[in-house]
Structures are given as structure tokens and as C-alpha cells.
User: Fold Acetyl-coenzyme A synthetase from Roseimicrobium gellanilyticum.
Amino acid sequence: MSSDFKSVLHETRVFPPSEEFKAKARISSMEEYKRLHEESLNSPETFWGREAGELKWQQPWTQLLDWKPPFAKWFVGAKVNVAENCVDRHVEAGRGDKVAILWEGEPGDTRSITYSQLKDEVCKFANVLKAQGIKAGDRVLIYMPMVPEAAVAMLACARIGAVHSVVFGGFSSESIKDRLHDSGAIAVVTADGGYRRGKVVPLKANVDTALSGGESKVEKVIVLKRTGQDIAMQAGRDVWWHAAEAEVDANCPAEGFDSEHPLFILYTSGSTGKPKGILHTSGGYLAGTYLTSKYIFDMRDDDVYWCTADVGWITGHSYIVYGPLANGVTALMYEGAPDTPHFGRFWEIVEKYKVTILYTAPTAIRAFIKWGDEHVTKYDLSSLRLLGSVGEPINPEAWMWYHQVIGGGRCPIVDTWWQTETGAIMITPLPGVTPTKPGTATLPFFGVDAAVLDDDGKEVGPNEGGKLVIRKPWPSMLRTIYGDAERYEQTYWGTYPGIYLAGDSSRRDEDGYFWIMGRIDDVLNVSGHRLGTAEVESALVSHASVAEAAAVGRPDEIKGQAVVVFVTLKAGVEANDGLANELKKHVGNVIGAIARPDDVRFANVLPKTRSGKIIRRLLKEVAAGGQVKGDTTTLEDFGAVAALMQSQGKDE
Ligand code: 6R9
Assistant:
């Protein structure tokens, strides 16, 4: 990527932290942030010794880092139990009666579990796993609805050193099969069913289908009763959670495991090819999720923290389970969808539980904007004090809406950039410290040496686009792709030796803030100028009629690539030629003629991954008029792709 990769977005709004937030902030100023950031990179022993020293290590480390690129070991020689840090540590500190998990089911049933109760649950289920013959190092696949037992199952694995691999409850039996095969799991933890958008998801039946070929190594299936629907139980293989639990006690010592003992494998689809099993280990992952949660979400004793992700994603692993519980915060978990039974469901929950910290995704924010403010403003959101965003670049206008309508103009927004591979948040503002600007994740967190490089490996100048990299290893980094070290090396470390390639393009502005421009593979190349998808999309979202947009390139004889945009409109807005022309003009005015779309195509919904990321690869094929190929198992809505394919040529 050379210097022809330019930014066309001009965003000048700046939001300094409020005096109120600043007065209570853990870090006192930008100077203090810079000092700590430098310390974390230049004297990591001092920094991590102090910060990770707040956790419970059964045996201290003898060496902080053993780095043989691209293989890292952190907290070498230490022994740690991750579950003990998330649960027992708080009970031992006299906070056993504090609520750990507040839970609301989609049908409206509720539960509240204290840290002492959580400890008992985790210990009992750890004993169930042991009784089923599961030992340290064994892989356990977890396929559960969003119920507290999903977190209990993860922590129980961690307690006995079993390696969990959570598969999102919305995935098919085919996905389960692939992941069972790749991970070699010997047990599955599931439920009879789960609730999603008013329907019952047949989780156990999907597991049965996945196991029906008889090729897996699975010996035991543990089944939680959630919906009470009829399911088949195979004698000798399948056991009920409650029945197995009745036979064990709540006494399960927390054995210390090596800091590099595998904690979990989480599969990430990647844009093409076979899903990658991202492997995370114990000490470094715990330290990373603990510290980021503490500083970025400013977790305090009286907070009610809500991350709206599913535990099946890395965001759920790091910021529903491990990070918040390691901090001893009260974490809310919600089983269902944001639009069931009505469009105000999230805000009803915020009001009911007096949520103080909310962490959600741009895809959700754009949906709320589309549905209309009236579903939000009828609830009392005054308990909120901090907002977070993750998953995609947040369009500046969506940021403004989040700030004003949800945050009442008073809540700092932390736009957090990170990946399944990074384990924890990497680039982010610190609340009460970093002045924010709509659309940028701002600056690197402690221990993160982020940079933007050109193709020759040189750092680019201000506002020039390039490849986002991390130049030093960090504690919560992935250790490998499970069973495929070669792919690990090639994918992440092969472009610039010894440097981690994130796969995103970015620029840094004059303040050093990082602006993610999109995935490298999605870059648009128009008349020799390379443009990030995010900026074109943000220009579209800044139009009053547009809810969401995706920009892709279509081969063009003259320009190399023509810009094609797919647009969804806000409720009540009609798609027509006049609006398409207006949108082309709008983009031209906002960011310049070079980015002016050649085609505007309207859609009811955009094709997305299950975690809400727009799949531009598919839209690119649609734009080029080709067939849809590749792995489509992670699509939210095949209908969306089909509708777009059918609507080819009819939109303008
Ligand atoms: C945590 C998570 C990682 C990819 C990442 C980037 C995009 C995530 C972002 C963001 C811009 C942010 N991404 N957060 N882009 N701003 N704040 O989402 O992990 O599912 O592995 O996706 O998501 O493209 O490379 P994962």
C-alpha cells in the first residue's frame, strides 16, 4: 500500500471528557496516560508486575515474556487458576453476597446470582465435568443459549484446566461438526433449547445431528433443561445437567495451572476458507481482560455493567465473562434479541436494572436509529454513565446519535478496536481522560505498540492510509491457530516479520488517533486511488434518510473499480431514483468526487455475519453480477443476499 491510499473523511468535532468524569477518573490526565503507556512498552516488568500483581497467582512468574517470534509466552513459570480469579477471589475478599450475574431471559424470566452462589455453581459443574471423565487439556464444546449456565460452563472448564470452545447458539449442526472435528472435543455442553426472537432454537437436536455421523470423539453430552421441550437422550452418552449436579458437592479446589495452559479455542470465520481456531492461554488473557475492563469500562463497586454481545463471540468471552468477573463487577446478561417482543427491549432493560455501563455494536446502534427515537425516549436512561462500541467502525453520525439519544450528551463513548486474535481491547479512549472524536478508536491501550505501515514497512505520515500493525507482543495475544502453526505464522506474521498484521487498514490523524478505514481485502481502488470502505459508508450514513450502508468495488474498464453502494433506509423513507441521485451527490459533496458512488442500490437488510459485521465480499460478487460463492454459513440472512441478487439492475 503506498501513499495513494488516502483518507477523504474530514471529521473535526472533539469531545473533551466532562469535569465530573475527570474528577473521579482512575488516570488523571493525558500526560499520565502517556507516561503509563511508555512505561508499559519500555519497562513492561514494572508495569505488568504492578498491574497484573492485583490478580491471584498461585506461584509468581520468573520471567515476564519469552518471545521467539511469532511465538510468545507470558508470565513464564507462573501458576494461576482463571476461575479462582473470577469467582473465589471476590468471595474471599468478603464480597460473596454481591450480585455477579443479573440475568433476564427473552420471555421475561429473571435470575440474580451472587458471587458465592456462582462459586458453588462453578465448583459443582467442575465436579460434574470431572465425574464425566474430563481432565485438564481436554477440549469441551459449549453450545448454549445466553443463560448464566453458559458462563458457569466456561468457568468450570477453566477451573479444571479443560479447554472450552464455545459455538454460538445460532450456528448450525454443520458448524458444530466442523469445530468438533478441528478441536477434537470429547464432550459437549448444551441445552434442550433456547429462546430467540420468540422461537425455540433446537440446540440439543442440532448437537444430535452433528454427532450422527459417528466421526467425532465425543463421549459425553451434558444437557441443561431450559425450554423443557421434548428431546432425545442417548443412554450412556447424554446426561442431564441437574441430575449430574445432584450427585456432586460444591467443593472443588482451584488447581494452579501453568500460565501458558490453554484456556479456550474460539473459531473465527475469516473472510474465506476454513474457520480458524484461535487459541488463547491463561495468565496473559486473564491479565489483559482484567486490566482493559478496569480502565476502559471504569468498573466500580456500584456499577451495573451490560455487554449486549453473545458469549459465543470473543466480546462475550472477554467482556461478559472473564474481564467483568475478574473485576468483581455486577454483570447483566440478556438472552434475547433487541427487537423482541418490541423495539424498546434494550432500553426497558436499562431502565429496569439501572444499567450504568453499556457496551454494544454499531450494527445495533444503526438498527435503533432506523427503528426511530420514540422506542428509546420513553424509557429513563439516566442511570447510564459510560457507553462502549465494538465490532465495526462506528460511523460518526451513529456515534453522535449514541452520544446524544442514548448517552444524553453526558456519557463518554469508548470506541474499542480489537479482534478475536487480540483477546482484549487494543485501541480505545480512556474515559475521563482521552478527548474523543466521532468515528475514531483514538489511542493504543497500555502494552500496545500500534502503528500504520506502508507496503515497505515504513510508518506512514499523518492521515495517510496503510496497514494496521502491532509491533510488540502483548499478554492477551493469540498463541497460535489451533493445529495449524504455519497458517498462524503466515496469516499474522508473514507480511512484516516479527510484526502482527491485523488485516485492517487505518490512518492516524495529526493527534496520532487511529481511524480504522476497513478491512484490507475490502479496499476500493478507484482510478489509482485507494479508499477505505468505512469513509464512504460514513458519508452515506450522514444523510438523513440512510440507516446503513456498504461500499464495494465493481470492475470498471476506465476507473479500475467503480464504487457501488448498498443502502438501507430509515423507517418510512421510500427508495427511488431521485434519492439514489441525491445520495451520489451527497457523498461527492461530503468527501469529494473521487468517492462519488457509480451505483446506489437499496436493500431491506444488508448481509451480515452472525455477529453483525457487513459481509462486503458477498456484496462485491453481487455488484459484479457473479454467483455467490464461499462459506456462507455465518450469514444472518440468506434472504438478504437472494433479494439483492434478484433485484440486480432494478434499483436505478
Ligand atoms: C472484537 C471483535 C475483528 C474485526 C477487526 C475490525 C473490526 C472491531 C472495531 C472494528 C473499527 C472498532 N472491528 N472493533 N473496526 N472500529 N471499534 O469484533 O472481534 O469478531 O474478531 O472482529 O472487527 O475489522 O479486525 P472480531
Summary: The pocket of 6R9 is lined by residues 268, 314-315, 389-393, 415-420, 441, 502-504, 516, 519, 611 (CB under 6 Å). The longest strand covers residues 546-556. The chain has a mean pLDDT of 93. The CA atoms of residues 563 and 597 lie 5 Å apart.
